Amino acid sequence: MFSKACEYGIRASIFIAKNSFEGKRVNPREISEEINSPYAFTAKILQTLVKYNIIQSVRGAHGGFEIIKEDLPNIKLSQIVEAIDGDIIYEGCGLGLDKCEEQHPCPVHDKFKIIRDSLKEMLKNTSIEELAIDLQRGASFLKI
Hints:
By secondary structure, this protein is mostly helical. It has a single domain (about 5-135), classed as Orthogonal Bundle (Arc Repressor Mutant, subunit A). The protein has helices at about 5-20, 30-35, 40-50, 75-85, 110-125, 130-135, and strands spanning about 55-60, 65. The protein has a two-stranded antiparallel sheet with strand order 1-2. A hairpin with a 5-residue loop joins strand 1 and strand 2 (about 65). Helix 1 runs antiparallel to helix 4. The longest helix has 18 residues, at about 5-20. GO terms for molecular function: DNA-binding transcription factor activity. This is Rrf2 family transcriptional regulator. InterPro entries: Tscrpt_reg_Rrf2, WH-like_DNA-bd_sf, WH_DNA-bd_sf.
């Protein structure tokens, strides 16, 4: 459903948010190890997240990546998805056809539209804060 980069971006954002709650900044190496992503790929994803103001980068000896605590409730999963994958997930055909529209639908168009619309709502209504809280209290995990 999401690209690998988007999956890693979501995982990285949740991990950074969890650490931001605890007043810690995390470096790219820690992030790549925690989310099981190649270091160089992780660094590129983090640059994108900084560019879209989802996370902040602080340079120096005590630097790293963080999310300002006050911003956590306002950062939604949809922002990460759109920053990395764009909005194609909300528009693509369920069968991958180049042309699929209301006037000329594919065989799964109407059923897939319901799923796609539900996904869009979930992404727009789920904050990084609530996912980080679940991670922090052990209700969810980034690693097996």
